[in-house]
Specification:
This protein has 209 residues and is an alpha+beta fold. The protein contains 4 helices and 18 strands. Helix content is 16%, strand content 52%. A hairpin with a 2-residue loop joins strand 5 and strand 6.
């Protein structure tokens, strides 16, 4: 059996308008017009993109408890290359061939520079994930986003239906159908409907019913 793997198609495009790549009641991810993009393929199918330009990521990672609000709103400017895995059909409707001038605006002298950076990003991201895990993700109504962080690793956002997972250097946030889990700064908060459990970093436990 021949195992398929993710690879870039090598064609450099640009966004012809501002685009919302992901949006739910918990957050959004938007890229600006002229952001560069190259498609990621799995076999003969488009399964994602690498983007580089300007954008923003917003996530409401706040959990309301009887002890008050725990967590924070995440707001990030997306000025570095990042990976998106998921459906690209709608995105491709708003992509056009990028010119040398478009590349120069982002800081590239030639197309190969962007392709090399995108390939390195994908190689490092997929190298740490088992083959069967990446092959089974087909982008059906779901998305995976990977953002390089200060430790040269990846902050990862996974969204499918009501499920949201965000894992960064300093926190883990999971939300699904009214249930929330937050781990941040040594504290852990679990909430289901109106019930919550808070485990403090000193191991003390607070239960609200």
């Amino acid at each position: 059996m021949i195992l398929e793997k993710y690879e870039l198609d090598g064609v450099i495009s640009k966004a012809t308008k501002d685009m919302m790549l992901w949006q739910t009641e918990r957050g959004l991810l938007e890229i600006k017009k002229n952001t560069l993009a190259t498609l990621i393929k799995l076999g003969d199918q488009q399964r994602g993109c690498v983007f580089h330009g300007q954008g923003k990521l917003l996530i409401d990672a706040i959990v309301e408890t009887e002890q008050g609000a725990i967590g924070k709103s995440i707001e990030k400017e997306l000025n570095d290359p990042f990976i998106m895995l998921g459906e690209t059909e709608e995105i491709q409707k708003h992509l056009a061939k990028a010119s040398e001038q478009d590349l120069a605006k982002i800081g590239y002298k030639k197309q190969r520079e962007f392709v090399d950076i995108a390939e390195d990003l994908c190689n490092r991201f997929f190298k740490k994930r088992r083959v069967h895990e990446t092959r089974r993700f087909n982008g059906d109504r779901g998305f995976i986003f990977a953002f390089q962080n200060e430790d040269n690793k990846f902050d990862v956002l996974v969204s499918k239906g009501s499920k949201l997972i965000y894992k960064a250097m300093d926190m883990v946030f999971v939300s699904k159908e009214g249930k929330v889990l937050l781990k941040s700064q040594g504290d852990v908060v679990c909430k289901s409907n109106e019930k919550s459990v808070i485990i403090k970093k000193d191991k003390s436990i607070i239960i609200n019913k």
